[in-house]
């Protein structure tokens, strides 16, 4: 097969978490700063180096307060999470083909565990997980992807990374893996993804089988 290793982003790729991220960013900004955030600015940063970096952009002198407010609002909302149509069915089919699967995300492991609790199949089919604590540098730096490959004993040319953000595409290209952008995340428009020159752009989980 072309890519025996397939790595996935989590937010906006496997789980439809965009709405709760936006809601929690708004809650944190209104609660701590007393002002609505610029939604386009917030959207453009989702999927990047992580929550602390996003909050630093909102108010560099109040990062800790913003992060605490965000997490207090966001974590309970994981009980309402939904997976994207077809995604949970996609993963077992990839595994049946003999592929190894992984998740590389900017989420902390404790927050990933909330998603795993909601969708146990994600944990069952994940051979490797790289979260925010596992590397010093984060997407769009390639280190999280390279760390996942190292844990699997895999080569970049044998792997694809599937994600919904420009940061995912940039990290994949920097790591030397096949970059697959997905258009179903609801946060980043196709034109922004295409500016990063992914190797493929797909709009349904079924299309992944045509490119992997």
Annotate the secondary structure layout.
Layout: E1 5-8, H1 18-33, H2 39-45, H3 51-58, H4 63-77, H5 87-96, E2 100-104, H6 109-118, H7 120-124, E3 128-130, H8 143-152, E4 159-163, H9 166-175, E5 178-182, H10 190-195, E6 200-202, H11 208-211
Parallel strand pairs: 1-2, 1-4, 2-3, 4-5, 5-6
Helix pairs in contact: 1-4, 3-4
The count of helical stretches stands at: 11
The percentage helix is 40-55%
Strand content: 5-15%
The main β sheet shows up as: 6 strands, parallel
Overall radius of gyration? 16 Å
Low-confidence stretches: none
Shape: globular
The succession of helices and strands, N to C, reads: EHHHHHEHHEHEHEHEH
The chain-level mean pLDDT equals 95
Find the structural class using helix and strand composition: alpha/beta
Write up this protein.
With 212 residues, the chain is of the alpha/beta class. Helices cover 48% and strands 12% of the residues. It has a 6-stranded parallel beta sheet. Helix 9 links the parallel strand 4 and strand 5 (178-182). Helix 1 packs across helix 4 (63-77) and helix 3 (51-58) crosses helix 4. The longest helix has 16 residues, at 18-33. The protein is globular.
